């Protein structure tokens, strides 16, 4: 007969396997050609250096994106992970891509989700197909087994209303707001971004600013 300690250890091990994600999917936004100075490019490299499986696909026609094409690539990328739970990191238009994807057919949940600078639908000059008529928050939440995090700026030209009121309140997420960070790109100082690495690795230490 198993002791209580042995049973507890098995439960802890099972929880650890469920919670610890070893794969990462990084999704870029509009007009992003994955430049080496972008925090997402650097994040991918740092995670690979630590031995993690990382997918950072070039999404089709980033200057004139089409939702159906991006959804197809996203579906293929998740399939390529072989059913593993993974951490998904979205920036800009990729956040709306994820919302559309999550509101489609039910799929196994990802482990955690980071949404950085989610734009307002009306601020998409070349991404009209990504505009949201509505947001099914239950579907979005059910597609993530663990934490959903939102990081945004108080001065994002692509979301003047703010990500908290537009998305955070509906999802029950308190957004992390960075002062004067624009759209959180290299142009506003977000090349190396230690927060992105520590969050991906499950740490809550440090703040989300450029430091």
Helical proportion?
Answer: 25-40%
Largest sheet: 6 strands, parallel
Cα separation of the termini: 53 Å
Task: Report the average pLDDT across residues.
Answer: 87
Structure description:
The chain has 211 residues and is an alpha/beta fold. Helices cover 35% and strands 13% of the residues. It has 7 helices and 6 strands. It has helices spanning 4-19, 39-49, 67-80, 93-102, 137-142, 163-171, 194-200, and strands at residues 23-27, 53-55, 86-91, 112-116, 148-153, 176-178. Strands 2-1-3-4-5-6 form a 6-stranded parallel beta sheet, sandwiched between helices. Helix 3 crosses helix 4. The longest helix has 16 residues, at 4-19. It is globular. 37% of the residues are buried.
List the helices and strands and how they pair.
Layout: H1 4-19, E1 23-27, H2 39-49, E2 53-55, H3 67-80, E3 86-91, H4 93-102, E4 112-116, H5 137-142, E5 148-153, H6 163-171, E6 176-178, H7 194-200
Parallel strand pairs: 1-2, 1-3, 3-4, 4-5, 5-6
Helix pairs in contact: 3-4
């Amino acid at each position: 007969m198993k002791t209580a300690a042995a049973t507890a250890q098995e439960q802890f091990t099972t929880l650890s396997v469920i919670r610890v994600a070893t794969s990462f999917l990084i999704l870029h936004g509009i007009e992003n050609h994955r430049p080496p100075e972008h925090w997402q490019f650097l994040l991918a490299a740092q995670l690979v250096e630590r031995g993690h499986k990382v997918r950072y696909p070039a999404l089709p026609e980033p200057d004139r994106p089409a939702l159906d094409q991006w959804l197809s690539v996203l579906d293929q990328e998740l399939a390529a992970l072989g059913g593993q739970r993974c951490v998904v990191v979205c920036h800009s238009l990729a956040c709306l891509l994820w919302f559309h994807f999550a509101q489609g057919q039910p799929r196994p949940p990802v482990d955690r989700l980071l949404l950085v600078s989610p734009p307002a639908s009306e601020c998409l000059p070349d991404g009209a197909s990504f505009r949201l008529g509505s947001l099914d928050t239950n579907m979005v939440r059910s597609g993530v087994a663990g934490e959903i995090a939102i990081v945004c700026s108080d001065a994002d030209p692509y979301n003047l209303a703010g990500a908290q009121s537009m998305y955070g309140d509906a999802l029950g997420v308190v957004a992390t707001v960075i002062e004067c960070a624009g759209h959180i790109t290299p142009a506003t100082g977000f090349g190396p971004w230690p927060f992105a690495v520590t969050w991906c690795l499950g740490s809550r230490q440090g703040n989300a600013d450029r430091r």
